[in-house]
Amino acid sequence: GAGVSQTPSNKVTEKGKYVELRCDPISGHTALYWYRQSLGQGPEFLIYFQGTGAADDSGLPNDRFFAVRPEGSVSTLKIQRTERGDSAVYLCASSKGGELFFGEGSRLTVL
Amino acid sequence: AQSVTQLDSQVPVFEEAPVELRCNYSSSVSVYLFWYVQYPNQGLQLLLKYLSGSTLVKGINGFEAEFNKSQTSFHLRKPSVHISDTAEYFCAVSPPGGNTPLVFGKGTRLSVIA
């Protein structure tokens, strides 16, 4: 597709479960970002990839959160032992030297 | 560390009236500045950006913003709003150079009233 694709669009899970969120960036974009947007807040930076490596993971809130981008394209955000406070919209964006293009997000609800 | 303050969480305005959404940033170095719009149930979309040069930046949908270095502001304006402009607007800042994470403000909800 032409834009950034995120799946699933909605995910409901129970406290303590493991969750994976997928991001398919725009073809050829070398940079990929994950943000988290809680209700009534702006997007909060989590992690940024340049190619396959994490260039900056300073925004990951704790070691339950992990992200990979093994082939420099698709990325997966992984959340272990989910907590109710993890409920948010997780946004992915890709870039090629400048403007960020965002996907529509994955809404995670932890019951 | 850079930060962004959007002074108004909600701005109601009548259709065809002008609007200004305020944004102030804090940074000790040069910055790039952005405004993004988020329509209901959609992803963030870039409205306009300031990288360098002219301090008055024109974007899509008739919006413009002016970079004021002395006041560390980047307010967004539109002379005449439409119902379709109802959305959440986010101001963001980053250090100069490509591929650096943006820091976003908390957003301003613009509600256009018929």
Give the amount of beta strand of chain B, in percent: over 45%
Shape descriptor of chain B reads globular
Number of strands of chain B: 12
State the order of secondary-structure elements of chain A, H for helix, E for strand.
Answer: EEEEEEEEEEE
Overall description:
The complex is a heterodimer of chains A (111) and B (114). Chain A has 111 residues and is mainly beta. Helices cover 0% and strands 50% of the residues of chain A. Chain A has strands spanning 5-7, 10-13, 19-24, 31-37, 44-50, 53-56, 65-68, 75-79, 88-95, 100-102, 106-110. In chain A, a hairpin with a 2-residue loop joins β5 (44-50) and β6. Chain A is globular. Helix content of chain B is 0%, strand content 51%. Chain B is built from no helices and 12 strands. The radius of gyration of chain B is 13 Å and the shape is globular. Chains A and B meet through β4, β5, β9 and β10 of A and β6 and β11 of B.
Task: Name its key features.
heterodimer, A: 111 residues, mainly beta, 7-stranded mixed sheet, 4-stranded antiparallel sheet, 11 strands, B: 114 residues, 0% helix, globular
